[in-house]
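Example A, followed by Example B.
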Amino acid sequence: MPTSADYNRAEHLLLPSAGYGAITSNTQTASSFTPIKVTTGSTVIECGALGTGPPVILLPGRGGSGPEQFDQLGVALAGGGFRAVAMNPRGVGASNGPLDDLSLHDLADDVAAVINSIGGPAHVVGRALGNRIARCAAVNHPALVKSLSLISAGGLVPPVARRTTAQPPTRRRPRNRWHQAGLAHEHAAQTTPVDEWWSGGDAPILVIQGLDDHVAVPQNGRQLAAAFPNRVRLLEIPAAGHMVLFERPDLVIPAVLSFIREIDDAER
């Protein structure tokens, strides 16, 4: 695998509010994913798989479903020659396992179990709280994680009062129906020390931030890029908030596809 020096050297992109390529309309949705289950100990993780090729693990935000939150990205990945594997974390959908005193390390181990089951290493995409799980997986299981794409990535700089000019989402955001799981995931995020996952190991990283994100404020991505300039690429999108994946899929999806293709091309 190439070293981090082979990747972007502290590149910082500020995208305009339009452009960067178009996403072709596709009527496929979360139902397009084929259900698979991975059992590790007393934990069963439900995933949705779509496409063939190098695997890309998709980790949703707190208490959310991977196939629902990543329906558009999953279809685009499959169309681009990748195998999209969208996870339902513990307590979501048919996934189950202990939720008491959960840590990000537990959730990261679930990611590792899925990658080992499908055959890795894998690219990992994490949205919102899923970005913390993705980074923890890269720290704890570096041989299994080829790259990290982090969308709305907070965890270090605290949220601020809501004040946004973000655009309305292009589609309705999937509801988080698994409240108890969400509480357990939030507990894991709040009780796992930041320095145990913040670095993302040695993996090359793409960070995508909405400039009007009041939850994962842009300073989070900027501090990560400043701390690891040889392996972090920061892409900021104006007039977009914490739901940047749903607000601007026309910008987010091509950026993720381009990044992971670059990583794979560098290995050939």
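Example B, a separate protein, is given below in the same form.
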Amino acid sequence: MPRQGQPPQQTFVQVFIALLIGSLALLVLGLQPILLGGLVNANRITLPGLGLVAMGEIVAIGIGVVVSDTMLSVSAHRLVAIVAAFAVAGLDVATLAVTGDGAILVLRAAAGLLEGALIWVATTTIIRTREPDRTAANFAVMQTVAQAVVAASMAKIVVPALGWQGAFMLLAILLGAGALLAVGLAPKLAPIEKEEGGAIVWQWSHFMVLAIAFLQMAALGAFWSYLEPVAQDVGLEPQSIQMLISGTLLIQVCGGIAATLLIRRLNVAVTLCAGGVAIALATGTVYFLP
């Protein structure tokens, strides 16, 4: 029961909309091989520029989350979601009209800042649910499912019919739909109840976990960004590459489901080490492909 004068607990639909908006913001990360690969093939950016554009948007997303948490009021989360989603949709369309590594880097970095704001909207919702850890795990599954479904749609329908431009147009349409759905977010969010024990005391182990996760994601992100040109070098057709991307994302869904079920049972150190070894084997194997 909420205290007198406090907003009521969020409904399932309101939480679902927030997670969906966050998933739409993160679509670009799963679809980077298709989106940026299309820009390279169309000579809109260079192959070295691909990495810069990918890195720029990813870093901007992180900055956008931090800036939003620092400067934006939680009471404005619904308005932030609506404005940011429409703005990202506009930048997706604008990307079609721009050429050059620098110009596209600026556009995609701007989109990343706004996508970070959308992720902030999702996280402000997650930490106010009854079981934030499970909600976060469900969010991981939801965003990967969305990426896999959209990637498959692009591979089978959108790109064959409309070319690489259709991929950005689909992304813009989905973000525009997300802006409309944001109207259904909770009008107000309850304050977070402070737990006894005071602030977190940061220890060396905390930084180690964050550093390991950062290095793993950096390795995966770099490999993922260049997946399409690497796959082309080993002889795969464009549509096969796009279906490979969708299939890879579906496997990630299985990992997300496992995390949802086992999040409170897995040993952190063992899980991080096992994940690091798996990533190293998967990416290293590509070097030996004919």
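On Example B: The chain has a mean pLDDT of 86.
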